[in-house]
Amino acid sequence: MEKITLLTKHRKAAALCSALSGCGFKLCSETGFDTDQLSTFSGARSGATSLRGTALQKAKLGAELGNTRYGLGSEGSFGLDPFIELTPWNTEVLAWWDRVEQYAVYAFVQGPETNFNRKFVDSVEEAERFVTQCKFPAHGVIIGKPGEVDYYQDLANTEQMKDMLVRLLPQSAVWLETDMRAHRNPTRMRMIERCARRLAMNLRSACQVCSKAGFVAVAQIPGAVCESCGAKTAAARAELFNCLSCGHEEERKLSSLAPASRCDHCTPVKRRPRISAPRRRDSPRVLPLR
Ligand SMILES: [Zn+2]
Ligand SMILES: [Zn+2]
Predict the structure, then answer these.
(1) Cα of 217 to ligand 2 centre, how many Å?
(2) pLDDT band at 244 (very low <50, low <70, confident <90, very high)
(3) pTM
(4) 198, exposed or middle or buried, with CB in 10 Å at 0-12, 13-18, 19+?
(5) Lowest CB count within 10 Å: 36, 222, 223, 261, which one?
(6) Nearest ligand to residue 105 Cα
(7) CATH architecture assignment, domain 2-113+183-204
(8) What residue ranges of the chain are covered by domains with CATH 3.90.950.10?
């Protein structure tokens, strides 16, 4: 098996080992570097591109510090869903780096599977309701904000939290937020695990031209035919695959027809629920990553 170094302070190896070993990599954790210097969770609205940049930076550093050919970097962001901005949302990216060939393969997952939440509380009862909702103590909760005197990340149980609140609440409302660090958040660990399975799948997909790992879909091409009337729609008819090593591209047709709900003839736009900004019908949709 090839060694791959993961830069982590938050015991992410547990979520990554199995998927990586399934495609021939033995994961070694490098814990001597403070990954928080690179990011303490990119802000809620950071896009996939900046997440990808940070994950790649971690992967490159990992390979260097671990002195291995391969490095692995993980980065996540939390905020509200990109459609109607109502539901908490988690995006996870993994970057795999080959130091010899100098190229990267990425994997990306996103979804509402997160306990991400934050608020000011005025009473112990309100705090108890909040932390129960956040699945504390199985999931971590943080008191205060970085830099504040009472910023505390390692609450172990409700008693300890109550003790702190009884001391702090007479002075002012107290800020509570979910701890999104992987080792304190089993829900996030599962998302990272899902991302690792996606990465393993991407690594198994080899480019037909240069045979390197990581030949993945990078964009969807619109024009699928409506299942009801046969008109062209904005739904994807094909996916564009691209090799990040040699640049080879290939269009792969999708077999499915478009549902009538996405057809301008069968379901005029004004009758459709608006969930995202309109897009030109003929422009390919760039996938964040695979
Ligand atoms: Zn139609
Ligand atoms: Zn290639």
Answers:
(1) 13
(2) confident
(3) 0.83
(4) buried
(5) 36
(6) 2
(7) Alpha-Beta Complex (3.90)
(8) 2-113+183-204
